Amino acid sequence: MATIAIYSLKGGVGKTTLAVNLAWCAAARSARRTLLWDLDPQAASTFLLGGDSAGRHPAQSIFSKDVAAARLIRRTAFERLELLPADTSLRGLDHLFHALDKKKRLSKLLDDLSEDYDRILLDCPPGLTDTSEQVIRAADLIVVPVVPSPLSRRAFDEVATHLVQRGAKVPLMPVHAMVDRRRKLHLEALAQDADWPVIPMASQIEAVAVRRSPIGTFAPRSEGARAFANLWQTIERAIVPGIQAA
Ligand SMILES: Nc1ncnc2c1ncn2[C@@H]1O[C@H](COP(=O)(O)OP(=O)(O)OP(=O)(O)O)[C@@H](O)[C@H]1O
Ligand SMILES: [Mg+2]
Fold first, then answer.
1. Pocket-testing residue among 6, 9, 16, 208, ligand 1, by greatest number of atoms within 8 A of Cβ
2. To test ligand 1's pocket by mutation, which of 9, 10, 17 has the most ligand atoms within 8 angstroms of CB?
3. How far apart are CA 216 and CA 190, in angstroms?
4. What pLDDT digit, counting tens, does each position of 192-214 carry?
5. At 36, is the secondary structure helix, strand, or coil?
6. Would the pTM of this model clear 0.85, i.e. be above it?
7. Which among 48, 77, 210, 230 is most buried, taking Cβ atoms within 10 Å?
8. Taking the CB of residue 113, how many other CB atoms lie within 10 A of it?
9. 127 Ramachandran zone, left/alpha/beta (phi>0; psi -120 to 50)
10. Any idea of the CA torsion for 43, 89, 136, 65, to the nearest 10 degrees?
């Protein structure tokens, strides 16, 4: 099992969109048993995958009451793709992690799920918080969407520096996100980091939120769908060194 976190210090940069579409690629294109774990109280991934928060246990009970994660996990409309939904109870997650003082809580919970899944993707809330510290300890790879703008780039550099300072070994995979090749600033950012994968700004990617379905299901040959498929292959190669992506 490999855990891939989709994380950024900044909000609104395309984390959830990446998480949902990459999770679908893992399940549908690479035939991996995949879990998307929504850690954000906004519950956007949960909404996009058709989940609701009407379960018997609030999402935070996994951390606060030792309710087994498996009891909250649901199927989605897509084969091999399951969802661990979020709800507003996760608003208190930072405080809870802080109070628990167990730095590997998330990591241990992921270990418990490792028999049942090949890939677990974490849709993370923005910020450099106790939750992100748990994510940094738990993930095998952290994918960071970076919109081509100085502030977004600065936020990425800050995260990279933070990881170095605390001696974290987890690799970061920055991704140019929401790229509009008609803009000079975007082209300059692409040229500066030519080896980063690229996700274009596209109305069909935006439509994922309207259709509440991954782009691969309704526009499989679109530029956006191909970009997510390519990025997923890059991720597979990064987490399984030397093995060609499925
Ligand atoms: N490549 C893209 N092209 C067009 N629209 C996009 C793209 N990526 C994301 N969006 C849109 O941008 C908005 C923000 O995206 P998203 O919710 O994925 O960001 P986020 O980083 O998860 O935000 P938050 O920090 O609030 O969790 C959404 O309306 C989404 O549909
Ligand atoms: Mg989000």
1. 16
2. 17
3. 25
4. 999 999 999 999 999 999 999 99
5. strand
6. yes
7. 48
8. 19
9. left
10. -130
